[in-house]
Amino acid sequence: MMINSDLYRTYVPLSGLYFSTLLQKHTSKTSPFLLFTITFIHLNICVMRDKKSTLLYRWFEKVWNESNEDAIEQMMTSDAHFQGINDSLPQGAAGFREFFKLFNTQFHDIRIDVEDVVSQDDMETARTVIYATHAGTGKPIVVPGLCMIKVDSGKIAQAWNSYDFASVDAQIL
Question: Which of residues 37 and 127 earns the better pLDDT score?
Fold first, then answer.
C-alpha cells in the first residue's frame, strides 16, 4: 500500500485561544478516504490589546480630548511625579493642572490619538500623536511621542513623557 503524506500547519481557534497544529494528510491508492493526524505542537495565547480599557486611554480622552481639567485630580494622585514635560512646575495633580493650562494657552484644537497601549501589572505605556493648532501662528502641529505611567490605586502615580517637542519650532515657522 502506497501512502502519500503532506504536512499542513494551521491555527485552530478554541475558546479565544489558538492552538498551533500540524495536520498530516494521508492518502492511499487503495482507500478513497483521507485520514488526518492532528498533532498539537504548542499553545499560542493571542491576547488582543484593548486600549480603551487602560487608564492612559481614559486620561488622554478625558483630560486632553474633552478638555476636562477636573479629570486631572480624579485620575492623578496628589503627589504624582512626572518627567519630560515642564520640570519647573510643582509635582502632583496641582502641578499638572498648571501645565495643562499653560499648554492650552499655547495650543488650540488639541487632540491626542492613542495609537497603541501596552499594559502589565501596574505599568502602562501609550504610543500617541498630538494634533493641535499653534495659538500664535495658527499653524497645525503634529507631535508623536510615548507616555509611560505607574498606576497606584487606579490613579497615575508616576509618569514619564517622551515627545518630539523640538520639532514644533520647525512646524510653526
Answer: 127
Q: Do 75 and 37 belong together in one domain?
A: no
Residue among 168, 84, 170 nearest 131 (CA): 168
114 against 52, higher pLDDT: 114
Spatial CA neighbour of 142 closest among 117, 164, 173, 115: 164
- Return the residue matching grid coordinates 500500500: 1
Q: Average model confidence (pLDDT) for the chain?
A: 81
Range of the domain at 39: 3-44
Contact by Cβ (8 Å): 134, 172:
yes
Q: State the CATH number of the domain containing residue 100.
A: 3.10.450.50
CA 136, 140, 144, 147 torsion-angle sign:
positive
> Which run of H or of E encompasses 71?
helix 71-75
Q: Do residues 5 and 28 touch, judged by C-beta distance below 8 A?
A: no
